[in-house]
Design brief:
This protein is of the alpha+beta class and 443 residues long. The chain has 14 helices and 11 strands. The chain folds into 3 domains: 2-113, Trigger factor ribosome-binding domain (Alpha-Beta Plaits), CATH 3.30.70.1050; 152-248, Transcription elongation factor, GreA/GreB, C-terminal domain (Chitinase A, domain 3); 267-439, no CATH class. Strand 7 (164-171) and strand 8 form a beta hairpin.
């Protein structure tokens, strides 16, 4: 078989395969011989069907199948031997009028070639690396919330500011009949709050939905409405009070600390504050790291310039998979996936040129062991043996989906560490509220 490549340009090429009789004849004859041994054709004993009849009935479909297998194998072998970095898969050129009576055949495949380019990880413009500080106000609010959650309810006969109120919202026309429990701190405005303060269990209040709660989503939650219906809802409702409770905060004592963190892990309010700061820092770090990775990704895509074989990729999308796309649908799909493809190529380029980023099987095993030990510790199994851990790791490594998931996770961690060490960054410290407002504000 003769195989050659003809480049149209730096990103597009055609691979031509010239198939001769010697390439397929032996295999085709073997298959037909087996067919003759097993074929059940009326009027002939098994194994005695005339060769001419077998050829007439089966030769062309067998020839087509064997040549297809041959060209796929040879095409893959050629791509590997030539180290071709392809985008998508080879697309066969249309050949509607093949004469299968011939002995020689020519097949052509279009291929899209990955572009050659360089990546400047450092870049010209510094990217913000956020660091969230856990100020005293944040810690105080968190402690208050935890004390409330672990506190106890004291029944009251009438509503006072800060109490929790339980009751039923009703409006027959809007088919509202919803049980709800909420703190008076959720109520918006002095006029609405005044209707609640001093009200007793069994009282029914006349209320308007517009501006009833500080948060618009609360109206949907407490009246059990979907957000679309609750948005801008202006109707009268009644609220029958069935229960009033004062939530007494839990005391800051050893019993409280043990409930939160286990026996004797925390022994004082100062230790509690330090533990909450550590836990918050870990949670915040996950968010700031993800934001940093996203921003670096966007920057690399924007500033790393290279062309793609766009026309080929659109044709490949249109003809790839079970569902056929129209040209317009394929173009839309390409536009949606282009940024992702660009980053895949950029990341592959970075990994190829930095050996420490290349995943090895041993790295994945070690990473799996670490993850398993952490998970076991969370469930109280602090002293797992190496044998126990390795048994779990072996099960994970035999699951392709798990291996893929952990490989992606480890690769992301390696890339993040690499970017922190090599990208041009500027650190910025702020509170969590400031981070949310600045990092996720609409562009």
């Amino acid at each position: 078989m003769n195989i050659k490549r003809t480049d149209s340009d730096a990103l597009n090429a055609t691979i031509t395969l010239e198939v001769e009789k010697a390439d397929y004849h032996h295999q085709v004859e073997n298959v037909l011989a087996n067919y003759r041994k097993t074929a059940n054709i009326p009027g002939f004993r098994k194994g005695h069907v005339p060769v001419s009849l077998i050829n007439k009935k089966y030769r062309v479909p067998v020839l087509v199948e064997e040549i297809n297998k041959l060209i796929q194998a040879e095409l893959n072998k050629y791509i590997t031997s030539e180290n071709l970095n392809l985008l998508g898969n080879p697309l066969p050129k249309s050949q509607d009028n093949i004469n299968w009576e011939n002995e020689e055949f020519t097949f052509e495949f279009e291929v899209g070639l990955a572009p050659e380019f360089e990546v400047d990880v450092k870049g010209k413009k510094a990217i913000t690396q956020y660091e969230i500080k856990t100020d005293d106000k944040t810690i105080n609010n968190q402690i208050d919330r935890i004390r409330e959650n672990y506190g106890k309810l004291i029944a009251k006969k009438e509503v006072a500011e800060g109490n929790e109120v339980t009751g039923v919202f009703r409006n027959d026309e809007e088919e509202i009949n919803a049980d709800a429990t909420f703190s008076t701190s959720k109520i918006k405005g002095k006029t609405n709050l005044k209707k609640f303060i001093g009200a007793k269990v069994g009282d029914t209040l006349e209320l308007k939905t517009k501006g009833l709660f500080e948060n618009d989503q609360d109206l949907a939650t407490f009246l059990k409405l979907d957000s679309a219906k609750a948005d801008g809802l202006k109707v009268d409702v009644t609220f029958e009070i069935t229960e009033v409770n004062e939530r007494e905060k839990a005391e800051l004592n050893q019993e409280f600390y043990d409930k939160l963190f286990g026996p004797d892990t925390v022994k004082s309010e100062d230790e509690l504050r330090e533990k909450l700061r550590e836990d918050a820092a870990k949670q915040f770090a996950q968010q700031t790291d993800q934001k940093l990775l996203t921003d670096i990704t966007e920057s690399l895509i924007e500033n790393t310039k290279f062309d793609l074989p766009a026309d080929f990729l659109k044709r490949w999308i249109a003809n790839n998979g079970e569902n056929q796309f129209t040209e317009e649908e394929a173009a839309e799909e390409y536009n949606r996936s282009e940024k992702g493809l660009r980053y895949q190529l950029i990341e592959s380029n970075i990994v190829k040129n930095n050996e420490e980023l290349q995943l090895k099987f041993e790295d994945l095993q070690d990473y799996s062991r670490t993850m398993i030990r952490q998970q076991m510790a969370q469930y109280g199994h602090m002293d797992a043996t190496d044998e126990e851990v390795d048994q779990v790791v072996a099960r994970i490594m035999s699951n392709q989906d798990e291996v893929k998931r952990m490989s992606e996770q480890l690769q992301n961690e390696k890339m993040l560490k690499f970017f922190k060490e090599n990208a041009k960054l500027k650190k910025k410290e702020l509170t969590y509220e400031q981070f949310i407002e600045e990092a996720y504000k609409p562009q």
